[in-house]
């Protein structure tokens, strides 16, 4: 059973709030015109402030102080961790990088070994078996090469 005169579903609080906000900021309404003028004025004022050498100098020095404080804090934390004989963040990151490089090398070595095995299988399949046994090849001394 459907009701032809069913009322529309009620809007939630968020939907009603967004609808009201849209109405208040719409350029055709009185509040929207005021909002647009205020926004343009604030944008011009912010542009003037951000181009000011004094503002740039002050904000730069505040950023530098913040970065220096962070560097000092990290140094103190790493010093405390070393005192406790715990690994520091930078040491863990170095180990992570080494493990990543080693993993890449192991993967490359595995790929190379797979290629060698494939080549050996092809070579064994292509060569006929000899009728008379040949003398075994001379054994070579192990290589003394270091990595």
Which key terms come to mind for this protein?
147 residues; mainly alpha
- Amount of beta strand: under 5%
State the low-pLDDT regions, or none.
none
Distance between the termini: 84 Å
**Helix-strand string:** HHHH
- The gross shape turns out to be flat
Helix/strand-derived category reads: mainly alpha
Number of strands: 0
Spatial extent as radius of gyration: 37 Å
Describe the fold and architecture.
The chain is an all-alpha fold. It has helices at 13-25, 30-51, 53-83, 89-126. The radius of gyration is 37 Å and the shape is flat.
Structural topology:
Layout (H helix, E strand, L loop, with lengths): L12 H13 L4 H22 L1 H31 L5 H38 L21
Summarize this, please?
With about 150 residues, the chain is mostly helical. It has helices at about 15-25, 30-50, 55-85, 90-125. The protein is flat, with a radius of gyration of 37 Å.
